[in-house]
UniProtKB/TrEMBL annotation:
SMART domains: EGF (SM00181), EGF_Lam (SM00180), LamNT (SM00136). It comes from the Eukaryota. GO terms for biological process: animal organ morphogenesis; axonogenesis; tissue development. Gene3D superfamilies: Galactose-binding domain-like, Laminin. This is Netrin-G1 isoform X2. It comes from Alligator sinensis. Disulfide bonds join C387-C396. The gene is NTNG1.
Length: 437
């Protein structure tokens, strides 16, 4: 019987071990901001760096198109079929649900048949450029954790720029250029992420990898986040400790993966050839069926939760911090300058909590975390200290006899000293008694 149990447990362990081999080594998930531990002084809080879970950020996005009337269907127009550029009897009509292609169809659930997608007007004004800006805004700082993936329903553009903003759309920087001919379009030599290294990972490149013509199986464009992570964490991202160490100490690297907004600048639709066929301009347009952006709210390692309220994301800050990104100390907790948390040392990091201001320690303030009631006092509902008979003050820090006309004599002081540890010992015994049974 014992042998069979042992073999069952061994089999379970082998199964668990084989599964765990596919996950990174223990480097810390930073999913807890604090935990209670027991020390010689009793139960205290142990603080650590923390961050929200990564999630699909598209569900929180606001999309803006420029020009605003660039979506097809108003007025209705015909366009050529995706697979057959000379079958030009398809219709886009904004007034008919089945024929409309509004921007929100870039973000709905995929898997339907036929697929849903946003579509621009056709290139009917050629040779005037068909330029479209698609801006994705979160009104919140986001840290990217996975590849940005854009799925086109039409062929992928001949020319496109992916841009990012870190200041809510006031200024923009290029993330990556895409073209069928990088030298001709942007005066840049073509590269791929595989041509980069740890030292050049921040280089802005132009790639021809995602800009082919009318190929039905070539509709996806990537901005490769994970390939860039892999320069520090290894090909399978097993050494995340190394990546977190780099993010912690290199602000430019950290900012590279941080955004408030993204912008797709569609500059030239897929032509599939050198010359534009002016007799069939209804062949040329943009159509996008899906955009995926995965990341987490930036909370400066001071929160594990990010919630939406009134269509705005905000961090549920801990460590006595506040602000949309937990970017400052709460009132009365400015005893030292605010600092972000740190991933180091692995695996718990450093919380860098905000501490109370000296001037803020006033009447009815205690929290059993940073503001302890002294001399055996008890914090009541976090608003006042219940002091032993011989003590008084905000935190029970003063002897009552100090207020007497004659001051404290040796006997009164001795009684206070003897009572304080006794009350503290009683409290500690009460706590440890919980674990006797």
């Amino acid at each position: 019987m014992y042998l069979s149990r042992f073999l069952s447990l061994h089999a379970l362990w082998v199964t668990v071990s084989s599964v765990m081999q596919h996950y990174p080594s223990v480097w810390g998930h930073y999913d807890v901001c604090k935990t209670q531990i027991y020390t010689e002084e009793g139960k205290v809080w142990d603080y650590m760096a923390c961050q929200p879970e990564a999630r699909d950020m598209i569900k929180y996005v606001k999309v803006t198109l420029d020009p605003p009337d660039i979506t097809c269907g108003d007025p209705p127009e015909t366009f050529c079929a995706m697979g057959n550029p000379y079958m030009c009897n398809n219709e886009c009509d904004a007034s008919t649900q089945e024929l409309a292609h509004p921007p929100e169809l870039m973000f709905d659930l995929e898997g339907r048949h036929p697929s849903t997608f946003w579509q621009s007007t056709t290139w009917k004004d050629y040779p005037k450029p068909l330029h479209v800006n698609i801006t994705l805004s979160w009104n919140k700082t986001i840290e990217l954790t996975d590849n940005i993936v854009i799925t086109f329903e039409s062929a992928r553009p001949d020319q496109m720029i992916l841009e990012k903003s870190l200041d809510y759309g006031r200024t923009w920087q290029p993330y990556q250029y895409y073209a069928t001919d990088c030298l001709d379009a942007f005066h840049m030599d073509p590269k791929s992420v595989k041509d980069l290294s740890q030292h050049t990972v921040l280089e802005i490149i132009c790639t021809e990898e995602y800009s082919t013509g009318y190929m039905t199986n070539s509709k996806i464009i990537h901005f490769e986040i994970k390939d860039r992570f892999a320069f520090f964490a290894g090909p399978r991202l097993h050494n995340m400790a190394s990546l977190y160490g780099q993010l912690d100490t290199t602000k430019k690297l950290r900012d590279f993966f941080t955004i408030t907004d993204l912008r797709l600048r569609l500059l030239r639709p897929a032509t599939g050839e050198i010359y534009v066929d002016e007799q069939h301009l209804a062949r040329y347009f943009y159509a996008i069926s899906d955009i995926r952006v995965y990341g987490r709210c930036k909370c400066n390692l001071h929160a594990t939760s990010c919630k939406e309220e009134n269509k705005k994301l905000f961090c549920e800050c801990e460590h006595n911090t506040t602000g949309p990104d937990c970017g400052k100390c709460k009132k009365n907790y400015q005893g030292q300058p605010w600092s972000p948390g740190s991933y180091l040392p692995i695996p718990k990091g450093t919380a860098n909590i905000c501490i109370p201001s000296i001037s803020s320690i006033g009447k009815n303030v205690c929290d059993n975390e940073l503001l302890h009631c002294q001399n055996g006092g008890t914090c009541i509902n976090n608003v006042r200290c219940q002091c032993p008979p011989a003590y008084t003050g905000i935190l029970c820090e003063k002897l009552k006899c100090e207020r007497d006309p004659g001051g404290c004599n040796q006997n009164s002081a001795q009684r206070a000293i003897s009572h304080g540890p006794l009350l503290l010992l009683t409290a500690l015994l009460g706590v440890t008694g919980l674990f006797i049974f």
